[in-house]
Design goal:
Layout: H1 3-9, E1 13-14, H2 18-36, H3 40-50, E2 53-54, E3 59-60, E4 64-66, E5 72-74, E6 79-80, E7 84-87, E8 92-94, E9 99-100, E10 105-107, E11 109-110, H4 115-119, E12 122-125, E13 128-130, E14 135-136, E15 141-142, E16 147-148, E17 153-154, E18 159-160, E19 168-172, E20 175-180
Helix pairs in contact: 2-3
Length: 185
């Protein structure tokens, strides 16, 4: 099994593998090209070349950072503001009409808890899934393995370490449910 296959399966893998390093280099070059493009329609087309999928009417403000791009699946009519970070050794799936404020981080990259395994360059990945109609406020961090339910709001600056149910306002560090939303959809 290749390191890429191990990575996508969520098992331990070596991120310094030449195939993975080349894929990250390709993503960085593509993002640099997108950031340098002043025409926003052309910039969106460059992003479409990189991502696993990008739905109609979705828009990304530059700059954006991602590890691979090929494991990022963006629904329709989504908006990602400037300086978002998508660490996608595992799948990152955003539903339709998701809005991410500036500086939002969606992180699937994880590391073993044992120092000896980290010293051996082992890494892990756990998927991040965001339901339809979610708003993630500026500077929020969504940690590996988290699912955010449809129509929820994540407050700015939150650190989301656990799943968030549908139709709630959640905020804080660690992020916790504040209240249910009256009109979630």
């Amino acid at each position: 099994m290749s390191e890429r296959e191990k990575m996508l399966a969520g098992g331990p893998y070596n991120a310094r593998d030449p195939e993975l390093t080349a894929a990250r280099d390709h993503a960085r070059a593509t993002m640099a090209r997108a950031s340098a493009e002043l025409d926003s329609a052309k910039r969106q087309e460059i992003y479409r070349e990189l991502f696993g999928s990008m739905g109609e009417e979705s828009f990304i403000e530059a700059p954006l950072f991602c590890d691979y791009g090929s494991n990022f699946y963006l629904g329709s009519d989504c908006f990602l503001n400037a300086h978002c970070v998508i660490l996608d050794p595992g799948p990152v799936r955003l539903g339709d009409r998701v809005q991410c404020g500036p500086g939002v981080q969606l992180l699937t990259a994880d590391h073993p808890r044992e120092a000896s395994r980290r010293a051996a360059d082992e890494e892990l990945s756990k998927p991040v899934t965001v339901g339809d109609d979610v708003w993630i406020g500026a500077g929020a961090i969504v940690c590996p393995g988290v699912t955010i339910g449809a129509a929820s709001i994540i407050g700015a600056g939150s650190v989301v370490t656990r799943d968030v149910p549908a139709g709630v306002l959640a905020a804080g560090n660690p992020c916790r449910v504040i209240r249910e939303l009256e009109d979630p959809a």
